[in-house]
Specification:
It comes from Durusdinium trenchii. Pfam families: Bgal_small_N, Glyco_hydro_2, Glyco_hydro_2_C, Glyco_hydro_2_N. The protein has 1187 residues and is an alpha+beta fold. Helices cover 15% and strands 34% of the residues. It contains 22 helices and 64 strands. The strands form 14 sheets. Strands 51-53-54-55-64-61-60-57-58 form a nine-stranded antiparallel β-sheet. A hairpin with a 3-residue loop joins strand 45 and strand 46. The longest helix has 15 residues. It is globular.
């Protein structure tokens, strides 16, 4: 029904369409361009095959580079305001008098980063050249910057002579340029192409070539073309020539034009490698054709020949299940491999295939080589299998991105990306949302990553006008879709790392995409096919897809389904049949990593690893790298985002390009550690009754056991250093194989082991029931691998010597309460010294002195002032050294909502409360600017005169108002004893808070100001990295040491950061004097720790609701920063934060309740209900101890 409507709309759209330029016409994708094929190397001899893949493609006798990534050159460049302003005849001539007016420019590069008045633009959905909410696919003629590159080419004389004799053809290959490019050589227009992320290859043999550098290559690059409507991929819109420019001289007769390598594995004893080799022939219809023999040799990793065979090229109707008029000349060679070594991510073993063509005279015409991984990909029992084993996809989406070069990606950046992915236990990457540089696939083959390759297709902008599938139902665009899909497959199909094809992203569905799916299934049956943009009905969606299109996807691959909804989809589709068959379930995008995010990630992995959900095979986190752009002339060393480069550079979508797991320079976000733990391929389990035994399971995608060492450390709650450590003994476990992996939920040949900790003292510690003991175990590499060095931690886990969280919590409450407080509250502490009360200003300012500390208190307004110990100030006075705080600097997820994301103010008024940003509620409630009004101050009678007392109690009642509206009332009791200061807090929310007018509070806690010298921090809680109530699974509960400045996480848009979850105590040390003091936390015994619910595991259970404290929170949320929440909240970049030195004060927060981060999505308030904070009353206690 929707498809029919869209076809009608398209007919109406094209009424009266006039003549179009080739760069405006959707039916012109290429002009005079060679078809895509596997990359050709034209090696000098077969001995070069072994070294050919150890680095970037090298020059040979018949391969030259005009310009290449990592070895750029200078060319001449001119930017014109539009195509019509380009004097084509003059600028494309062999000799150009106007070249003196051109600027020098690096190539490869993108011109927006060079800085020439045309700004980089970031949009998530919007077509930036369009104005208004149009359905037009017109391309602007006036506002369409057009770059002209003039490059001198050096063509070897031997190539020119061979071309003149008709023996060879000279090819020019642009590996990446766009959005569209016209190619001129020596004044001749050679061709045109507009898939900017795949090759545009043309023959230049007849372009009046001359020996030497007198040959001119002119590239006219258009910023906008009709193809731009298909490249709306949530990234910076950048233009230029950003990949290699290559020259090749290939045989016209009897050479290799293309080849397809396929593998099949019969069993562990045998495998087959097949090579279909398409041989070049100048005239396919001619009967006069010299015999050509193709010889194939397969070598193992030690360069030992394991199989060889030959075949003659014959005339065939098809090549790779493709057919053309006149057919092809193809040689089919098969190689049998005995005892094959299979390729997988944990053991990416590669063979080298060498192909030679020879004529009837026995002379070698061409030598090619390809690395081959023997592996199979199938779907069995609604699971994706590799080599007969179901896989667990620990995946991430990756844009090609360099913060200084944009789309120009160096090899070292690729290696760095893969190494980091592997180090953090990712085993799969989705090329979002376009094919990558060829070297990327070679490295993924070599280092071991599963790849989902994706066509350069996204038409997301039409969803803004609810016509998502518009182009899918327009026959004029069919060839444009097909061309991009074909390019992806033909150029990369020989790579073992690619286990599946994706037809594109967020482009709706319809006849055009179904034609693409049919073509892929016909030509490649060895991989899976997926596409998110369709819907389960098979019709054309108008706004968004659900990843369940039965025609276009072998996998149910939605994006951003929450855990519960994902489980509901599984339940709904379990009994499906026919075209709605039961299929594997892999999230193509999930856990949106925007800023301080990725909360709730453990909820997904509970599902993925559950034996009850074997179809759920993981997913791809969005996404890998923050697309921060560094331009010194604009950002002064900071990373910019949308809108930072001028009013037209993308203010609407702003920071939406900053959603990676790593910063632009590839420094990992703290959330990477959470992902690493949840995806680790080794599981540990521990029985407290057997304190020297740990059960271990190695999943099939783990590195081999022989490359691992298991170590243990034992920690006590009072110290950061381990009290015991050593190497574990490894014992095999002889027990029946269970049908499913208890951790991954997928049938697998996993390895079960038991670790024995050979330390009699450990048993004694457990026997003595010493509280606060933590056992930590880890698996490390015993040798260097391609992606990590010896000693790298592959997996870890820790176990507390407690039966439950409540047991742990009660233990620390006892530690806090066992001395002064209980007696002080009940009648005073009997000490010989006590507390001396000194009246500094009678009726207003008193000073409380003990042998341990001195504290000032303003009894007129109820605020504690400076606290010192000897010459050291411990707490600064300010507006009160201890203050209640209910606000945090908004995270990117806190800012996400319909009221902040929609561009239209009128539409924002109709956004329901459930879709409004958390930060908007906090702002309307004035949580960042509450006025504190003292209501009553009860002062201990002993304060009336200068005296010494066993204890002094001051009770302060305050109201926290926004304007005239009360938000909270607090009852704060300060108890001063000889040893310590106790702060008992009772917080009561006004009805405007707890009666549903706010979906969650950011925090409820105390804020204290500590002098800057107390920068050394030690705490007992979750660590060692940043953690929050819904992102702490990968942390270890124990004592950790850090420094305040190291706790600051410089998220590109400053936000709440650096927190530590479940903190029982924190200790500060002065770098100057070594003085120390400690803050400890507890909350009342009757407040139980609320258990976490994993909603997707049992759909019959009621969904969790908000509460006074997030689920699973059993200590305080602690942070320490040199910035206030208000300062962080106001800043839009790190450079906008106030300059702070080592002596700047430290703002310490201890929160009895702190909202989770969320992360399922960032554009709506999706922090799970159980990690939200809402309630009417909170009570807790903080103890301050000078040491």
């Amino acid at each position: 029904m929707k498809s029919a409507y869209l076809r009608l709309v398209n007919r109406l759209r094209h009424l009266g369409t006039g003549a179009l330029e080739h760069w405006q016409d959707p039916q012109v994708v290429y002009e005079n361009v060679h078809e895509h094929h596997t990359p050709l190397r034209l090696l000098d001899n077969k001995l070069d095959a072994f070294a050919a893949f150890e680095q970037e493609k090298e020059e040979t006798v018949f391969v030259r580079f005009v310009a290449r990534v990592g070895d750029s050159r200078t060319c001449k460049f001119m930017l014109y305001p539009n195509p019509g302003a380009v004097p084509l005849a003059e600028v494309t001539a062999r000799k150009c008098d106007d070249e003196v007016y051109f600027e020098d420019a690096e190539i490869p590069s993108v011109w927006q980063i060079e800085g020439n008045g045309d700004p980089p633009i970031y949009t998530n959905i919007t077509f930036p050249w369009q104005r208004g909410w149009a359905l037009s696919t017109s391309v602007p003629k006036r506002d369409n910057p057009t770059g002209v590159y003039r490059i001198a080419m050096d063509i070897p004389s031997g190539w020119i002579h061979a071309a003149q004799r008709g023996a060879r053809d000279i090819f020019l290959i642009l590996h990446g340029a766009g959005a569209g490019v016209d190619i001129f050589v020596n004044g001749h227009r050679i061709g045109y192409g507009q898939d900017s992320m795949t090759e545009t290859e043309v023959v230049i043999s007849d372009a009046d070539l001359e020996e030497g550098t007198s040959n001119s290559l002119v590239l006219v690059v258009y910023r906008w073309t009709d193809g731009s409507y298909m490249e709306d991929q949530d990234q910076w819109w950048l233009s230029g020539v950003f990949r290699d420019i290559e020259l090749q001289c290939r045989p016209r007769e009897g050479g290799i034009a293309d080849y397809i390598v396929s593998t099949s594995v019969q069993d562990s004893a045998s495998a087959m490698v097949s090579a279909d080799v398409r041989v070049t022939r100048a005239d396919i219809a001619s009967e006069d054709f010299e015999e050509v023999t193709v010889r194939a040799e397969l070598y193992d990793a030690d360069r030992k020949l394991v199989a060889s065979n030959s075949a003659e090229a014959k005339h065939r109707a098809g090549f790779g299940d493709e057919f053309q008029e006149g057919g092809y000349f193809v040689a089919k060679v098969q190689l049998s491999v005995r005892d094959p070594h299979l390729w997988n991510v944990q053991d990416p073993y590669l063979y080298t295939l060498v192909l030679e063509t020879t004529g009837s005279d026995g002379r070698v015409t061409q030598v090619e080589a390809s690395q081959v991984g023997l592996r199979t990909v199938t779907i069995t029992d609604a699971q994706v299998h590799v080599n007969g084993e179901p896989i667990l996809v620990c995946g991430v989406n990756r844009h090609e991105w360099d913060p200084k070069r944009g789309k120009v990606i160096l090899e070292e950046t690729m290696i760095q990306d893969i190494s980091l992915m592997k180090q953090f236990n990712f085993n799969a990457v989705r090329n979002s949302h376009y094919p990558n540089r060829h070297r990327w696939y070679e490295l993924c083959d070599q280092m071991g990553l599963f790849v989902i390759d994706e066509a350069n297709i996204e038409t997301h902008g039409f969803s803004k006008v609810a016509h998502y599938s518009l182009l899918q139902n327009d026959w004029r665009w069919k060839q444009a879709f097909l061309a991009r899909v074909k390019a992806m497959v033909k150029r990369s199909r020989n790579h073992a790392c690619i286990i599946g094809w994706s037809l594109g992203n967020e482009s709706g569905s319809g006849p055009n995409m179904r034609a693409c799916a049919d073509w892929v299934r016909r030509v490649d049956k060895s991989r899976t096919l997926q596409y998110e943009g369709g819907v389960k009905s098979g019709d054309s969606p108008m706004i968004m897809g659900d990843g369940r299109d039965p025609h276009c996807s072998d996998i149910i691959c939605p994006m951003y389904d929450g855990p519960r909804h994902f489980a509901e989809v599984e339940s709904e589709t379990t009994a499906a049949s026919g075209k709605y068959r039961k299929r594997p379930m892999i999230l193509c995008e999930y856990s949106h990593a925007m800023g301080n995010s990725n909360g709730n990630l453990h909820q997904y992995w509970k599902l993925f690893r559950s034996p009850e959900h074997p179809r759920m095979q993981g997913g791809f986190i969005w996404d890998w790298v923050d697309q921060g752009l560094s331009r010194p002339d604009v950002m002064k060393g900071n990373w910019g985002y949308g809108g930072d480069f001028g009013p037209t550079s993308g203010r609407e979508d702003s920071t939406f390009c900053i959603n990676g797991l790593v910063f632009p320079d590839r420094t990992p976000h703290p959330a990477m550690h959470e992902a690493k733990y949840l995806m680790q391929p080794i599981s540990f389990s521990y029985d407290p009754t057997k304190p020297a035994k740990v059960d271990v399971r190695l999943e099939t995608h783990c590195v081999p056991l022989g490359k691992l060492k298991f170590e243990y450390r034992v920690y006590h709650s009072a110290q950061a250093a381990a009290c015991l450590s050593g190497v574990c003994e490894v014992e095999p476990v002889d027990k029946p194989r269970r049908g499913h992996n208890a951790r991954s939920g997928h049938a697998a040949r996993d390895v079960d082991l038991q670790l024995v900790i050979p330390h009699t003292k450990l048993r004694q510690l457990w026997a003595d029931e010493l509280r606060g003991i933590t056992l930590y175990v880890e698996a490390t590499l015993t040798e260097d691998l391609a992606y990590a060095q010896r000693g790298h931690v592959v997996a870890h886990d820790s176990f507390l010597a407690y039966e439950s969280v409540s047991d742990l919590r009660n233990s620390f409450e006892t530690m806090l309460l066992e001395d002064d407080l209980s007696e002080a509250v009940d009648g005073g502490v009997r000490t010989s010294t006590g507390v001396k009360v000194v009246h500094v200003e009678r009726g207003r300012h008193i000073r409380l002195e003990s042998t341990r500390y001195t504290a000032d208190f303003d009894i007129a307004v109820g605020r504690m002032g400076e606290v010192s110990a000897g010459d050291d100030i411990l707490l600064e006075a300010g507006n009160g050294s201890v203050q209640h705080c209910f606000f945090r600097a908004a995270t990117d997820n806190d800012l996400g909502g319909g009221d902040t994301m929609l561009p239209n103010e009128l539409l924002k008024k109709f956004v329901p409360k459930s879709a409004r940003a958390f930060s908007g509620f906090w702002d309307r409630m004035g949580l960042d600017r509450l006025e504190v009004v003292p209501m009553r101050i009860d002062v201990d009678a002993r304060v009336d005169s200068d005296s010494r007392a066993d204890r002094v109690v001051i009770r302060v009642f305050e109201e926290h108002r926004h304007g005239s509206n009360p938000r909270f009332k607090t009852d704060t009791t300060y108890t001063f004893t000889a040893e310590s200061i106790f702060v008992d807090a009772a917080v009561f929310a006004a009805p405007s808070i707890w009666k549903g007018k706010i979906p969650s509070l950011p925090r409820v806690g105390l804020r204290m100001t500590v002098p800057g010298q107390f920068e050394q921090v030690e705490y007992f809680g979750q660590g060692p990295v940043e953690s929050y109530p819904d992102r702490k699974a990968g942390c270890r509960m124990g004592v950790h040491q850090t420094e305040v400045d190291d706790m600051h996480v410089p998220y590109i848009q400053p936000s709440e950061n650096g927190g530590r979850a479940d903190v029982q105590w924190v200790q500060f040390t002065s770098r100057h004097t070594g003085k120390q003091f400690r803050m400890s936390y507890a909350f009342p015994e009757h407040d139980e720790v609320r258990p976490e619910l994993f909603e997707g595991l049992d759909l019959s259970k009621t969904q969790a609701a908000p509460s006074r404290r997030p689920a699973g929170m059993f200590g305080a949320q602690f942070s320490a920063s040199r910035y206030t929440p208000q300062e962080i909240h106001k800043a839009k970049h790190q450079i906008e934060l106030p300059l702070r030195g080592k002596d700047s004060p430290i703002h310490v927060h201890l929160d009895t309740a702190h909202m989770g981060l969320g992360g399922d999505v960032s554009w709506f308030p999706k922090t799970q209900q159980q990690y939200r904070v809402i309630g009417a009353e909170w009570r807790y206690r903080v103890k301050i101890d000078p040491l």
